[in-house]
């Protein structure tokens, strides 16, 4: 395994609803596609109550959101071989609702949110239009290599 893709991955399903649909091998494949450096990641699937609590506690926003990324070495100068460390929290309720609203499968939407979260863990952001465009472009490219459609296509046609 190349150092670039060295991955330690923990997956937690305290909300077990997607455990049989979104498997560990699929998660590992999606994460590795978005990794540009070694990483130690935890992916956790939570219900709306836990998602809302985490979003309120850490971001000051009192609602459940689709994905939260807690990057533990964000902003630090780390050696190339030093792993990115992060927790990526997916809210099952929001994920399923958004997939239905966007006419996507749960798998398709989860793949996108995993790629999005992994990019955040590595320092990518979308605070301004330029950053957002760059991040969306990278996400679209990675998802394309995984066989998924551009998740932003509907917005671009808008």
UniProtKB/TrEMBL annotation:
UniProt-annotated location(s): Cytoplasm
Would you tell me the Gene Ontology cellular component terms? cytoplasm
- Return the broad EC class: hydrolase
Residues engaged in binding Zn(2+):
116, 120, 126
> Which Pfam family would be a valid example here?
YbeY
Q: Could you mention a single GO BP entry for this protein?
A: rRNA processing
Cross-referenced InterPro entries: MetalPrtase_cat_dom_sf_prd (IPR023091), YbeY (IPR002036), YbeY_CS (IPR020549)
Q: Cofactor comment in the record?
A: Binds 1 zinc ion.
Q: In Gene Ontology terms, what is one molecular function of this protein? A: zinc ion binding
EC numbers, comma separated: 3.1.-.-
User: Which UniProt keywords are present, listed alphabetically?
Assistant: Cytoplasm, Endonuclease, Hydrolase, Metal-binding, Nuclease, Ribosome biogenesis, rRNA processing, Zinc
Q: Required co-factor?
A: Zn(2+)
What is the first-listed, main subcellular location in coarse terms?
A: cytoplasm
Superkingdom, natural source: Bacteria
Q: What does this protein do?
A: Single strand-specific metallo-endoribonuclease involved in late-stage 70S ribosome quality control and in maturation of the 3' terminus of the 16S rRNA.
Tell me which family the UniProt entry assigns to this protein: Belongs to the endoribonuclease YbeY family.
NCBIfam families per record: rRNA maturation RNase YbeY
What is the name of this protein? Endoribonuclease YbeY
- Gene name as annotated: ybeY
């Amino acid at each position: 395994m190349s150092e670039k893709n060295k991955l330690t991955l923990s997956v937690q399903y305290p909300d077990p609803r997607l455990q049989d649909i979104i498997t560990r091998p699929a998660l590992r494949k999606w994460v590795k596609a978005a990794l540009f450096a070694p990483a130690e990641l935890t992916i956790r699937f939570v219900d709306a109550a836990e998602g809302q609590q985490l979003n309120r506690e850490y971001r000051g926003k009192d609602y459940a959101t689709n994905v939260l990324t807690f990057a533990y070495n964000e902003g630090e100068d780390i050696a190339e071989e030093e792993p990115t460390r992060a927790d990526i929290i997916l809210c099952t309720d929001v994920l399923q609702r958004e997939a239905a609203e966007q006419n996507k499968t749960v798998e398709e939407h989860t793949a996108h949110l995993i790629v999005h979260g992994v990019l955040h863990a590595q320092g990518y952001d979308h605070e301004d239009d330029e950053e957002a465009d760059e991040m969306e472009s990278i996400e679209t490219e990675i998802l394309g290599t995984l066989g998924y459609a551009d998740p932003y296509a509907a917005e671009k046609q808008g």
